[in-house]
Model the fold of this input.
Amino acid sequence: MHYYSIELKNVLFGKIREIFTPDSGLTLDQVVADLSAQEVSKERFLNIPSVSGSVNLISGTIASLPIKLYKSEGGKVTPIEDYRVNLLNDTTGDTLDGFQFKQALVNDFLLYGEGYSYVNRRLSKVYGGCV
Done:
């Protein structure tokens, strides 16, 4: 048995009626904002199983792909060995390995719309970075 206050029912059903009128002009975002006064944090968002599963699937798949660096000369493309490739794929010089680094970067991109990492340079030598 569900217990709702009369005010909640009136507000809820009033909003539903507004949604289904042809000229309401309401967007889904407005309705959700009106019905929910709570902010959604990353933790709450990831508690939704379909969101968490989707983010993990996408970030895990992308993180498992190796990053390669290519050089183009005269129309010919060849892969080259570079220390930056090792930093991105194997050891980041921090507490994360290459997979975890890429996964964290993609997670931030999916959840916040952007993902950044810090490159620790001393006299133009790269010592590793962190997310």
